[in-house]
Amino acid sequence: QVQFVESGGGLVQPGGSLRLSCGTSGIIFSSYDMGWYRQAPGKQRELVATITTGGSTYYADSVKGRFSISRDRARATVYLQMNSLKVEDTAVYYCGYARGGYWGQGTQVTVSS
């Protein structure tokens, strides 16, 4: 049974940082490109960042230079380091396959003063 479990969300002030984690089980982690997505209220889910099995990364223009995706093969975990957070980063963040189609339950990130 495939499971993705996100954690690390919360309330942070503009300019602050958060680190999201995504623990995975039920998959051969080293075989899959992974990604982080987000969905803000009233908007469609959008791709934030991806990382390939070889460690190559992609970032949406809106987060480039501020967010960093990484993966730990031994822990079968994907991370998203978010720095210089903006109010418009407020959303539920989901971990899943880079190609989409399956995600965890999400973790809420709220950026507000």
- Lateral arrangement of strands in the main beta sheet: 2-10-9-4-5-6
Number of strands: 10
Shape: globular
Q: In which range does the helix fraction lie? A: under 10%
**Rounded average pLDDT:** 96
Count of DSSP-assigned helices:
0
Segments where pLDDT lies below 50 for 5+ residues? none
Which features does this protein show?
mainly beta, 10 strands
Structural features, described:
The chain is mainly beta and about 110 residues long. The chain contains no helices and 10 strands.
How would you summarize what this structure contains?
This protein has 113 residues and is an all-beta fold.
Topology summary:
Blueprint: E1 3-7, E2 10-12, E3 18-25, E4 34-39, E5 46-51, E6 57-59, E7 67-72, E8 77-82, E9 91-97, E10 107-111
Parallel strand pairs: 2-10
Antiparallel strand pairs: 1-3, 3-8, 4-5, 4-9, 5-6, 7-8, 9-10
